[in-house]
From TrEMBL:
Protein name stated in the entry: Glycosyltransferase 2-like domain-containing protein
Naturally occurring in which organism (per UniProt): Streptomyces microflavus (Streptomyces lipmanii)
Glycosyltransferase 2-like domain span: 3-71
InterPro entries referenced in this protein's UniProt entry, alphabetically: Glyco_trans_2-like, Nucleotide-diphossugar_trans
Top-level taxon of the source organism: Bacteria
Length: 73
């Protein structure tokens, strides 16, 4: 998803909720991009709860939920 976002002409930010996953598994391009913020949850809480918690980190007026297999077009 990061690769498709970087090809967008509009400005963007991303919040990634790691739902019980290790932050070590985050690919380097995501970890190094200042437009990407990460919420590390110490245990799996489920997609809905992780999204609700990640919403606290959003700084933009609009939000779009996407899973890790989505390609932005």
């Amino acid at each position: 998803m990061h690769a498709s976002l970087t090809r967008q002409s509009a400005p963007w930010e991303a919040v990634i909720a790691l739902d019980g996953a290790s932050p070590d598994r985050l690919p380097a391009p995501l970890a190094q991009d200042p437009r990407v913020r990460t919420l590390v949850l110490p245990r799996a809480v489920g997609a809905a709860c992780a999204r609700n918690l990640a919403l606290n980190l959003v700084r933009t007026p609009y939000v779009n939920w996407a899973d890790d297999d989505v390609v932005a077009a």
